[in-house]
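Lab meeting, item 3. Inverse folding demo.
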């Protein structure tokens, strides 16, 4: 699509957002995330314009999910927040019209600032909610967004890995940060999450899915639904798909082997 078509498509995706200010912010975040990094000048312009909508260093957006209004706070000049809201605007991790059973528990692995959890709470208001996020600044923002919407949840300042251990957080290795065994000045506790029966697991853990998923299955922990972002898909993503197939998961999506990163909804049985 050409730039005008892309913009019109993104604008149509903002229909879930309430109020013209929030809709413009959603449009700008979506276009910012969709533009190639080679378009540095226009990306820089969009980034600056989003900041103009801030008040007290917060860009407040209001949207509706499952007929319920929510308010979320994005931090001014925080690229990660803008990109995540842009992804949500463009339909990342959709919870409507999916072939999934209503879960009793939602586990948000790599919760960032809690935007997916807001959508999950709207879709499954009676499900318990547990969030894992290794970045302390993001955890503070999660708590702020949950408090603004009256949501109770367990929020752990932890990363996810194949077992309980201390690893290292790297904020510059991806826009939302990642944990690895490579030393840094930011040690972080990591765990393999508990998976209660009838659970939905969302995984956006910047490559740690190659550690987490096999360990979960080896431990006999099987979510009924897994919503996940598979990184490095072009080089090793097929191993994740094989693992899911072997353990009885199915999905509707199809992918090109050359895609770098893909989103998947896998359902047990």
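The presenter then showed the designed sequence:
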């Amino acid at each position: 699509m050409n730039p005008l078509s892309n913009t019109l498509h993104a604008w149509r995706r903002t229909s879930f957002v309430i109020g013209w200010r929030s809709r413009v912010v959603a449009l700008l975040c979506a276009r910012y995330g969709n533009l190639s990094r080679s378009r540095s000048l226009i990306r820089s312009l969009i980034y600056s314009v989003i900041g103009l909508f801030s008040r007290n260093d917060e860009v407040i957006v209001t949207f509706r999910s499952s007929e319920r209004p929510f308010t979320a706070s994005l931090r001014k000049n925080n690229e990660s927040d803008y990109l995540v809201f842009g992804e949500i605007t463009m339909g990342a991790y959709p919870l409507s019209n999916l072939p999934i059973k209503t879960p009793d528990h939602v586990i948000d692995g790599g919760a960032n600032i809690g935007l997916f959890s807001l959508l999950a709470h709207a879709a499954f208001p009676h499900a318990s909610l547990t969030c894992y996020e290794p970045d302390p600044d993001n955890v503070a923002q999660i708590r702020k967004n949950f408090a603004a919407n009256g949501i109770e949840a367990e929020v752990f300042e932890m990363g996810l890995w194949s077992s309980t251990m201390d690893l290292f957080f790297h904020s510059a290795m991806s826009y939302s940060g990642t944990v690895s065994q490579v030393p840094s000045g930011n040690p972080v506790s990591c765990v393999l999450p508990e998976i209660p029966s009838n659970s939905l697991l969302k995984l956006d853990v910047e490559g740690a899915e190659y550690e987490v998923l096999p360990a979960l299955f080896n431990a006999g922990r099987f979510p009924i639904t897994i919503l996940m972002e598979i990184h490095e898909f072009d080089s090793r993503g097929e191993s994740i798909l094989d693992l899911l197939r072997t353990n009885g998961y199915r999905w509707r999506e199809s992918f090109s082997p050359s895609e770098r990163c893909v989103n998947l909804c896998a359902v047990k049985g």
